[in-house]
């Protein structure tokens, strides 16, 4: 395994999958196949909005991307560090209002309002984090549940910032210098707001996924997982569990706040009804369906849970027994059907595939790696 | 005589009305293999829990290389060079074996959350350097086939060895082994004994061994401390302790 060991010239180059140094062993996209996969993924993200020009589907994908960012944040906290939080919606809301102030009222550009909301999320996460030192499991879930209600009270009453019950418009524009992603013009071609936001959001998904992946595969990430698996043993081998629990809250809330900022900027109007307990539960469902403790799973889960209601919506007229309009024929409304399928999925995944969509993906990958042998 | 590495003086630990340790004193020299024996509930594991800061003794002092140990947090004590294995396995089950070993080096590494996210630069350099250090332990303990297997899926004997490996990855000056061969068959026990001898020869460290397998203790230990109900009843070379009437009585009851 040592890197100094030379290859035998007479036999030509070593096999492309042979690892000859630790540095090589640690590459994220080491094998040729994964490089091809990465290339395909990036190409898809670049080309997709020019192929799918339909505003409805683009907006579904944009919301999925924003949700993916938030889900990566929650997965760091819950999937990797084992801290169950029902308060994710609170940090997402805080991020949206931060963007409304910094990007809208102050009129600062995209990088500034995005980082400002991340900073506010980090500070709020740092304030809540210490609760995790004394509480774990269900007790922590209850405390973070309280956060949702405190948040709701704040959002409804801090009218100067949040606009109270009616909500506030978010004027944070997606501008970087002279480039406005809301009305992109490249080489004489005009792109719609949805196309611009698709590229912005999914580029951020890729960046944040990469940062999160790096975090979890290095020293701090191992420490997070050690705390999740066995926090006393972690202390005994020198991991300061408390520090990592708080750190997980800080990073997770910062990412959640960025997702909120993007949500606000894209939707242009947010109200307290956007950050209810339901949103937190939806995020927990996403990381369960996608796969706890995987970055990729958070993204898969977000696409799945984001796209499913849209699919049902789109094809509800073809499903028998579904009432597509109020008072129409059928015994179940589109909304109720969505909720029912959603609940059913959580149950099915928990029972049959606890590793989520990512687990299915790993199994398929392992099958093809070993093909034609079954092990 | 040079100063001992570890000096434990008058250690007393109580849980409510129960006295788990009562005036335990001993010293461990550099490079020495010191064993603690005693019947179930004698307080052997409690000594370990005091040594690495999990329990706070009510009385007594623990000094490691001139520095006071008791009163500090487990993570600080780990940084001072005290490593430990657990009686019922303390591996992180969902992490691979190599990740478990890398966690042993946690206190020797510096990468924080932001540096880890950035990867390029220090994080990457540290990962490579410490991976190389872990591989030496993989080689020493012959764990090569298991590198990428989650610790929870390792066979029991291998898991025990992996835990020893994680403790060694910490580059400790004092290694605490809590029943390293508990639940093992004769062959696995012999393997573990062989690794312990090898570790002693290769790495210059002191060890404290808590073990029920008296043959292993008698074969490996330089000195032995016998406890009964938290009270020291004998200390000396394995032969002396083995034939001490109080030790025989503690193990076999009054009639012997």
From TrEMBL, chain B:
<keyword id="KW-0813">Transport</keyword>
<dbReference type="InterPro" id="IPR003593">
    <property type="entry name" value="AAA+_ATPase"/>
</dbReference>
<dbReference type="Pfam" id="PF12399">
    <property type="entry name" value="BCA_ABC_TP_C"/>
</dbReference>
<keyword id="KW-0547">Nucleotide-binding</keyword>
<dbReference type="GO" id="GO:0005886">
    <property type="term" value="C:plasma membrane"/>
</dbReference>
<dbReference type="InterPro" id="IPR051120">
    <property type="entry name" value="ABC_AA/LPS_Transport"/>
</dbReference>
<dbReference type="InterPro" id="IPR003439">
    <property type="entry name" value="ABC_transporter-like_ATP-bd"/>
</dbReference>
<dbReference type="GO" id="GO:0005524">
    <property type="term" value="F:ATP binding"/>
</dbReference>
<dbReference type="InterPro" id="IPR032823">
    <property type="entry name" value="BCA_ABC_TP_C"/>
</dbReference>
<dbReference type="InterPro" id="IPR027417">
    <property type="entry name" value="P-loop_NTPase"/>
</dbReference>
<dbReference type="GO" id="GO:0016887">
    <property type="term" value="F:ATP hydrolysis activity"/>
</dbReference>
<feature type="domain" description="ABC transporter">
    <location>
        <begin position="6"/>
        <end position="254"/>
    </location>
</feature>
<keyword id="KW-0067">ATP-binding</keyword>
<dbReference type="Pfam" id="PF00005">
    <property type="entry name" value="ABC_tran"/>
</dbReference>
<protein>
    <submittedName>
        <fullName>Branched-chain amino acid transport system ATP-binding protein</fullName>
    </submittedName>
</protein>
């Amino acid at each position: 395994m040592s890197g100094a060991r030379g290859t035998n010239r007479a036999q030509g180059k070593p096999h492309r999958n042979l690892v000859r140094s630790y540095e090589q062993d640690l590459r994220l996209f080491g094998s040729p196949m994964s490089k091809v996969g990465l290339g395909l993924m990036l190409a898809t993200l670049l080309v997709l909005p020019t192929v799918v020009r339909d505003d409805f589907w683009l907006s579904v994908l944009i919301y999925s991307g924003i949700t993916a960012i938030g889900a990566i944040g929650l997965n760091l906290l819950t999937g990797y560090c084992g801290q169950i939080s029902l308060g994710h919606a609170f940090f997402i809301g805080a991020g949206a209002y931060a963007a409304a102030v910094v990007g809208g009222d102050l009129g600062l550009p995209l990088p500034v309002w995005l980082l400002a909301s991340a900073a506010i999320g980090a500070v709020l996460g740092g304030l809540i984090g210490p609760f995790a030192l004394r509480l774990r499991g269900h007790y922590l879930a209850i405390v973070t549940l309280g956060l949702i209600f405190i948040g709701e009270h704040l959002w409804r009453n801090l009218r100067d910032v949040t606009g109270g019950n009616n909500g506030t418009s978010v004027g944070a524009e997606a501008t970087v210098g002279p480039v406005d992603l809301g009305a992109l013009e490249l080489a004489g071609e005009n792109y719609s707001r949805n196309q611009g936001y698709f590229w912005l959001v999914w580029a951020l998904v890729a960046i944040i996924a990469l940062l999160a992946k790096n975090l979890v595969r290095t020293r701090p990430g191992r420490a997070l997982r050690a705390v999740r698996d066995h926090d006393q043993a972690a202390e005994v081998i020198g991991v300061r569990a408390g520090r990592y629990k708080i750190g997980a809250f800080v990073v997770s809330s910062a990412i959640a706040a960025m997702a909120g900022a993007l949500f606000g900027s894209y939707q242009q109007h947010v109200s307290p009804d956007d950050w209810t307990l339901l949103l937190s539960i939806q995020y927990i469902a996403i990381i369960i369906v996608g796969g706890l403790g995987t970055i990729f799973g958070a993204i898969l889960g977000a696409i799945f849970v984001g796209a499913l209601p849209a699919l049902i919506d789109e094809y509800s007229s073809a499903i028998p027994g579904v009432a597509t309009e109020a008072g129409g024929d059928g015994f179940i409304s589109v909304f109720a059907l969505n909720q029912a399928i959603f609940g059913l999925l959580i149950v099915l995944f928990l029972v049959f595939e606890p590793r989520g969509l990512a687990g299915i993906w790993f199994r398929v990958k392992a099958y093809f790696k070993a093909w034609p042998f079954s092990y | 005589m040079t100063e001992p590495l570890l000096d434990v003086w008058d250690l007393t630990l109580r849980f409510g009305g129960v006295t788990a340790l009562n005036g335990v004193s001993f010293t461990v020299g550099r490079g020495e293999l010191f064993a603690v024996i005693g019947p179930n509930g004698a307080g052997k594991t409690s000594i370990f829990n005091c040594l690495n800061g999990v329990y706070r003794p009510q009385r007594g002092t623990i000094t490691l290389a001139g520095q006071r140990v008791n009163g500090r947090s487990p993570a600080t004590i780990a940084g001072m060079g005290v490593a430990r294995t657990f009686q019922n396995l303390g591996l992180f089950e969902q992490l691979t074996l190599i990740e478990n070993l890398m966690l042993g080096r946690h206190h020797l590494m510096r990468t924080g959350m932001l540096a880890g996210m950035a990867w390029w630069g220090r994080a990457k350099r540290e990962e490579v350097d410490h991976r190389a250090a872990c591989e030496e332990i993989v080689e020493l303990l012959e764990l090569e086939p298991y590198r990428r297997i989650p610790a929870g899926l390792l066979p029991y004997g291998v898991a025990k060895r992996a835990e020893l490996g994680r403790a060694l990855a910490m580059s400790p000056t004092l290694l605490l082994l809590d029943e390293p061969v508990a639940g093992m068959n004769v062959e696995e026990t012999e393997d573990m004994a062989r690794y312990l001898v090898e570790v002693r020869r290769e790495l210059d460290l002191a060890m404290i061994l808590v073990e029920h397998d008296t043959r292993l203790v008698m074969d490996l230990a330089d000195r032995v401390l016998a406890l009964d109900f938290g009270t020291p009843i004998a200390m000396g070379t394995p032969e002396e302790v083995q034939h001490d009437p109080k030790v025989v009585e503690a193990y076999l009851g009054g009639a012997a």
